[in-house]
Amino acid sequence: MAGVMRSAVVRRRCPFVGLALILLSTFVYLNNTSRFGAARAGGPTLLAHRGVAQRFEVAGLQNDTCTATLITPPTTPYLENTLPSIGAQLRRWR
């Protein structure tokens, strides 16, 4: 008897789960499509995934090497995830 009731509950919820998946898929598609945007002149723009990372010597690295002790002095003030680098990027896009 319990199996029959559980089966009825699953059958009752299945359309809602299917509708939710369809709505989620539609949202993801519409959120990522370029159909509604204006055409841009020129080619694609390359966006960096990260900022300028601090470098360190890679010679002689082992699995347990502390790379923090190997960091070389920065050559730019725009290191990744710092306020100067974020500010410079925001000024660039204004």
Describe the structure.
The chain is mainly alpha-helical. It has two helices and no strands. The chain is flat and about 65 Å long.
Any descriptors?
94 residues; mainly alpha; 2 domains; 0% strand
Order of helices and strands: HH
Content of β-strand: under 5%
Class of secondary structure makeup: mainly alpha
Uncertain segments are none
What is the 3D shape? Answer: flat
- Tell me the number of structural domains: 2
Largest sheet: none
Please count the beta strands (DSSP E, at least 2 residues each): 0
Our measurement of the CA-to-CA distance between the termini, rounded to an integer number of angstroms, reads: 66 Å
Q: Give the fraction of residues assigned to helices.
A: 40-55%
Radius of gyration: 26 Å
How many helix segments? 2
What integer is the average pLDDT? Answer: 80
List the helices and strands and how they pair.
Blueprint: H1 2-32, H2 83-92
Quick summary:
By secondary structure, the chain is mainly α. It has two helices and no strands.
